[in-house]
Amino acid sequence: MWVSDVGRKRRLKNMLIVFFLIQLALITRVGFIQFLQGSELQAMAYSQQTLNRDINPKRGRILDRSGNVELAVSASTETVSINPTNISSENKEKLARALSNIFEIDYEKTLKKVKKRTSIEIIVKKVDKEKTDELRVWLEQNNITSGVNIDEDTKRYYPYTSLASNIIGFTGSDNQGLEGLESQYDDILSGTQGKILKLTDATGTDMGTEGENYIPAEDGDDIILTIDTTVQSIAEKYLSQACIDNECTDGGNVIVINPKNGDILAMATYPNYDLNKPYEINNEELKAIWDTLDSGEKNNYLLQMWRNKAISDTYEPGSTFKLVTSSAALQEGIADTDNAGQYNCSGSITIAGARIKCWRYYRPHGSQSLRQALMNSCNPVFIGIGQQLGISTYYDYLEKFGLLSRTGIDLPGEANSIFLKEDKVGPVELATISFGQRFEITPIQMAKIVSTIANNGKAVNPRLVRAIQDSKTGEIKELAVEEGEQVISKENAKKVLSMMQSVVDEGTGKNAKVEGYNIGGKTGTSEDGVNTGKRIASFVGVADIKDPEVVIVVILYNPTGEGGHQGGGVAAPVAGQILSEILPYLEVSREIQEVQEVIEMPNVMGITYKEAKEILKEAGLEIKNELEDETIITDQLPKSGIQINKGTQVILF
To answer: What is the H or E stretch that residue 257 is in?
Structure first.
């Protein structure tokens, strides 16, 4: 009896010890969970009981300068996602099959997502409402009320496909701007994401609308461009035609800008691409071998296609740069426009032992004024002017014209000019700079140079966006025009414009003439790199000279067609074609020209001065000199038989 009591007490003691140990283990475990794993488990519980879904805002529109033409818009779409843990096991395969059929996606990949042990999986993004409505009907028919989410979304769309593609750029699948203005103004256009916060119970079942917190997305604001859709389309039309006709292996650029405020009316690049299919290459030869290229090669070709050469690439401007040398010479008082015989071209000029030829070395230009030198594009004259100015003064003007820094245009990827540092420039280097060779600038920098001259000598920064429009209120906030310094005087700017008009009226730029308008310009022909064998043909123009409202820059990269590679032969005609359409459209004042009657010059030789006077008077012609009535006429100017205007003065001998 005593033994059994002892055994019972021992067993009881052992049981108490075991119980105590169990209690201690439980308390230790609870403490571990509470204090060491508490925050982690709390986060896991929150993740299981809350289902966060993002709502994409509608991206702001990109509008042309009128504020009415939409160049980029966001269409309403929907995104389908699932919460796999909230889908019952018996519905998983059935749902995966329905999703793959409705949205035409891979069944096995969809099933894998449905079977995952995650809180949320994206099935399809940015699909049309017609498709999601099919899914809604199927869910209702199959009594599936939880685990599938259909949320509003947006998709970027470009109504004019390739128009201004290298300016506008495009967005990625996440609605973020990747290129062009879409990237530059992403903060303004993108808006603010919204959220849907949905609470579930411990079993994962929705708690209804009382367990849902909806934070609406805020749409992005619109940007209003300086680009005019009509001017842009005209520029692209003639640029494309010129690049094809002249077989320009490396494409081309056209910039049309208002010199008074820096507003870019058109910035065309050839070739361009379809903004709605930005990853589809635009080259037929490349398309044929596209699948054989590796990802690196494909990426390089796409980046080149998206590139805006007007701001991202540099080129040698050639003789168009003589406008800078002319401006500096006038401003420094070392030249005037019409001092007859101020300069002489002997076919070449020797600088520091180096002989540099004129392009017409075989038939020198001889005695010239500055106007004639610009009309003839005579290199030795501008080399001489550069030497007179000196390196320090010349570099001062490079800086004043904004050529030693970027323009600051509102686009990503702007390049800077490539000049030798001032302390590395010698007489020969200054000579080549003076007539536009052995350095490089961007097309937009050239547009700024000509705009400065056209704007009475005052610099103005080029821009592509003129205003921001609030998407909620419609309020428009105009952006300030950024003006620069007075580079040359108004008087000297007018002189340069006058010489530019002579270049078009009588010089190398004749192919840019437009009837009824006073057009000024300068042609350029240069090398595209050293010893590449490639050429660049260019033309810069101003219209109308009396009150400039348009500056145009045309650049054709490596024209190899039968028309040659001279700026006056292939680039000037493009400018003339574009200006002939955009000047009337922009309502630029047209010069009213009298239509003069054309007659044939009569023959008055062999008769008396008195008889000749009567014949010429009857024909509506004037006699410049007087002779005795009975004097016999032995010669006349103009010669008989040629076509002349009525009112022309005739000289009799």
So the answer is: strand 252-257
Backbone angles phi, psi at 204, to 5 degrees: 90, 5
> Rounded to an integer, what distance in angstroms lies between the CA atom of residue 651 and that of residue 649?
7
Sheet with 194-199, side-by-side order of all strands: 50-55, 194-199, 212-215
What pLDDT score was predicted for residue 620?
Answer: 84
pLDDT at 332: 97
Measured in degrees and rounded to the nearest 5, phi and psi for residue 97 equal -65, -40
Mean pLDDT over 473-483 rounds to 93
Q: What digits encode the pLDDT tens for the residues 256-315?
A: 999 999 999 999 999 999 999 999 999 989 999 999 999 999 999 999 999 999 999 999
DSSP string, 330-381: HHTTS--TT-TTSEEE-SEEEETTEEEE-TTTTS--EEE-HHHHHHHT-HHH
Mean pLDDT in residue range 112-136 = 88
Q: Average pLDDT, whole number, for the chain?
A: 89
- Please enumerate in sequence order all residues whose Cβ is within 8 A of that of 508, keeping only pairs 6 or more positions apart, or say none: 375, 376, 377, 523, 567, 568, 572
pLDDT of 194 = 79
Q: Where are the domains of the chain?
A: 2-36, 51-224, 312-585, 598-652
CATH number, domain 51-224:
3.90.1310.10
According to the 3-state scheme, what is the secondary structure of 521-580? EEEEEEECCCCCCCEEEEEEEEECCCCCCEEEEEEEECECCCCCCCHHHHHHHHHHHHHH
Rounded to whole angstroms, the maximal C-alpha distance in the chain is 179
Token couple for 154: 């947006």
Cβ pair 542, 520 in contact under 8 A: yes
The answer on pLDDT for 46 being more than 50 is: no
Catalytic residue among 81, 190, 319, 327: 319
CA dihedral of residues 309, 314, 318, 322 (deg, nearest 10): 100
Digit-coded pLDDT (tens) for 322-342: 999 999 999 999 999 999 899
The rounded distance, in Å, linking the Cα atoms of 62 and 221 is 9
| Whole-number pLDDT of residue 145 | 84
What's domain 312-585's architecture? 3-Layer(aba) Sandwich (3.40)
pTM of the model: 0.80
- Once rounded to an integer, what is the mean pLDDT over residues 492-504? 97
Dihedral pair phi/psi, residue 207, rounded to 5°: -95, 10
Omega within 30 of 0 (cis) for the link into 364: no
Determine the number of helices (DSSP H) and then strands (DSSP E) in the chain.
21, 26
Topology of the domain comprising 598-652 = Trypsin Inhibitor V; Chain A (3.30.10)
Spatial CB neighbours of 251, under 8 Å, sequence gap ≥ 6: 243, 269, 270, 271, 309, 557
- Give DSSP secondary structure letters for 271-297: S---TTSTTS-S-HHHHHHGGGS-HHH
648, exposed or middle or buried, with CB in 10 Å at 0-12, 13-18, 19+?
middle
State the average pLDDT over residues 221-239: 96
538-560 mean pLDDT: 96
Conformation bin of residue 605: beta by default, left when phi > 0, alpha when psi is -120 to 50: beta
- For residues 415 and 405, is the Cβ–Cβ distance under 8 A? no
> Span 219-232, mean pLDDT?
96
Respond yes or no: is residue 319 known to be catalytic: yes
pLDDT value, residue 203 = 47
